[in-house]
Amino acid sequence: MGIKVGIIGCGSITKLRHAPEYKANPFVDEIVFYDRNPERAETLAAMFGGSVVHSVDELLEDPSIEVISDCSSNESHHIFSAKALLNGKHVLCEKPISLTLEHAQEIVDAQKQSGKKLMVDHNQRFTRAHQKAKEIIKSEELGKVLTFQTTFGHSGPEQWGVNKSNSTWFFQKERSGPGVAGDLGIHKVDLLHYLLDDEIEHVSAFQGALDKVNEHNEPIEVCDNIVCSLKTKKGRLGTASFSWTYYGEEDNSTIIYCQKGILKIYHSDQHQLEVITKDGERVQYHLENIQTNNNQTNSGVIDAFIDSILQDHPPLVTGNDALSALKVILGIIEAAETNTVVTIESVNL
Length: 349
Ligand SMILES: NC(=O)c1ccc[n+]([C@@H]2O[C@H](COP(=O)([O-])OP(=O)(O)OC[C@H]3O[C@@H](n4cnc5c(N)ncnc54)[C@H](O)[C@@H]3O)[C@@H](O)[C@H]2O)c1
Description:
By secondary structure, this protein is α/β, with parallel strands linked by helices. The protein folds into two domains: about 5-125 and about 300-315, 3-Layer(aba) Sandwich (Rossmann fold), CATH 3.40.50.720; about 125-295 and about 325-345, Dihydrodipicolinate Reductase, domain 2 (2-Layer Sandwich), CATH 3.30.360. It has ten helices and 15 strands. The strands form two sheets. A nine-stranded mixed sheet has the order 14-13-12-11-7-10-9-8-15. A hairpin with a 2-residue loop joins strand 11 and strand 12 (about 260-265). Helix 5 runs antiparallel to helix 10 (about 320-340), helix 6 (about 130-140) packs parallel to helix 8 (about 180-195) and helix 8 (about 180-195) packs across helix 10. The protein starts with a strand and ends in a 6-residue tail after the last strand.
């Protein structure tokens, strides 16, 4: 008998990633959908096969469901993911793990108490170009990493989220929290921690709601752009820009400058990774394009999560990894709001 999965929240991320990737996974044989808007659950059950329930407790109290994907909006993760873990389910929680450190800690504690697997969907770690970059950095063939720059920007979540309008929860402070920093920035913070095997320790930033308006044509309550200066524990220096106003083309690029050369990731349409050495030699890797809002490919996250359950090994992104990335993002927002340099305390492991 295969694994039965329950999905909470039937919006865009479920439609484009979780549902198709569970359906394609050979060890999963049933998906049960729940959304407080039942039509959305019905639509996905019709598209991908599976059944629908009308309350979250029907999912969490069903002993035949072993795995839960928490694809609700950010303010609910701590309620659903913590409860699911304490009810004995393995949980794949969407990012950001929560809006506050206290809520994130509730999920991490629930994982410890239950002994079940918790993975958070920081999917950037999984792409082939990022995996290859990690391998090159770790081998130190380019020497040590000195500086970096990273960017993640697209034209905004009002085109992405299921309701396709400016009334989207992504624009509301209570539900979205740190705005574009929590939506896109947190991906790159986690990626930097992973690629550099390091942690961001000091941050400063500027933010603004420069262009997005809500359904009443007022500027949104959260930032649509933020630019940051970062220093890591190991002393690397870097910059990061996160934006919901890159109209026309997404930018998902990272450059890592090392002692003996440069790694350019997702910088060109022709190749996904380029290594340029001190002597000017260029090696271009043709790997796989990263998922964009308009081009969804298998992220590998669901397969990795199911594998960690079946093989009983720790997932590639743990609750503490997600908590650590959230700490940095909240520090970045604090730095921007107070015009100060903020120091981030390391997550206690
Ligand atoms: N990993 C990634 O690359 C990635 C990309 C986009 C979104 N996300 C994350 O996925 C989550 C969902 O985002 P989305 O883009 O699918 O949003 P969305 O607005 O398209 O869908 C969210 C769905 O959840 C449902 N929902 C929200 N709160 C609920 C509750 N309390 N009870 C029941 N149903 C509830 C809504 O009705 C809606 O159908 C967010 O945490 C977001 O940050 C991750």
